[in-house]
Amino acid sequence: MKKALITGITGQDGSYLAEFLLAKGYEVHGLIRRASTFNTRRIDHIYRDPHPNGGELPFYLHYGDISVPESLMDLIYNIQPDEIYHLAAQSHVRVSFDMPEYTGNITGLGTIRVLEAIRKSGCKARFYQASSSEMFGGAKPPQNEQTPFEPRSPYAAAKVYAYWVTRNYREGYGLFACNGILFNHESPRRGETFVTRKITRAVAAIMAGKQRYLYLGNLDAKRDWGYAPEYVEAMWLMLQQDQPGDYVIGTGEAHSVREFLDEAFGYVGLDWHDYVRIDPRYFRPTEVDYLLADASKARRELGWEPKVRFRELVRIMVDADLELMGLPSPGEGKRILSERFSSGWHRWEHQVVSMERLP
């Protein structure tokens, strides 16, 4: 049984990766930070209770911190994993402008702490570094493994540092270390402050009568959006190759935030122009206009291709947030609601206007 260690296991990618590896027969270990509140909701369904008659899955959580080298060294030395997936980071781009030093410490220096722990412990683990399409920044699309980086945020700059130290340890110390340059990948488990999930949650809340407006920033930014569960398979494939390398992962399609709004609100029969308001606070000091993946290397060498495309991705996310609100999915042909406002947004009513399945 192979052993895998995942940092950032409580995040979107970490939870999907844990499921994927358990299905492959791995023993999975996850690094979590100690907190006074539970922050494991994405992995609660696979958590293994250490007491008798607990879970049967070989899934273990360990307290630690990416900012503390000693905890990483002890963990890696004691577990001796075959594969390490380093996903932990301060990963919100807009927040990185407000917390640049913290972002550099966790997102950038956190990577070299893990690499040093591998090297000093003598562990022979294969290493995956979660790099980001944000590293390309202002580079002309499409972007591939040969495209020069032009980071335009503290987050992107920290990821560029992490990318290069991963390559340095591969070339200097012979570590099997890979950079997965993943373009935007979303799911119902996406954090609520990321724009895609912010939109789909708002759609559900508006339909439920619990929200009137959605406040956003730049609607013209274009991103290559894919489905997160498919992207964790690409991570795993990288570490199964004979030689380590760096790979761009994406769909090869780019859509603007406006298009995401069109698809999400249109899916439930609403016009987003009635609900979306622009708030300058959500604009970045330096914007990234257009990210588009050229993932031909991954297709050629890993045999990886995306299956879920943009429209299906948006509808998967809207359906999930509607379900959380206790509302039916329009994709199931149950009902489409329109809104009729009275004197205040909190008094608006639902009206069934169609029973037709949406196209």
UniProtKB/TrEMBL annotation:
Enzyme class: lyase
Pfam families xrefs: GDP_Man_Dehyd (PF16363)
Highest taxon in the source lineage: Bacteria
GO biological process terms on file: 'de novo' GDP-L-fucose biosynthetic process
Catalysed reactions listed for this entry: GDP-alpha-D-mannose = GDP-4-dehydro-alpha-D-rhamnose + H2O
Family, as annotated: Belongs to the NAD(P)-dependent epimerase/dehydratase family. GDP-mannose 4,6-dehydratase subfamily.
PANTHER family membership: GDP-MANNOSE 4,6 DEHYDRATASE, GDP-MANNOSE 4,6-DEHYDRATASE
Name under which the protein is recorded: GDP-mannose 4,6-dehydratase
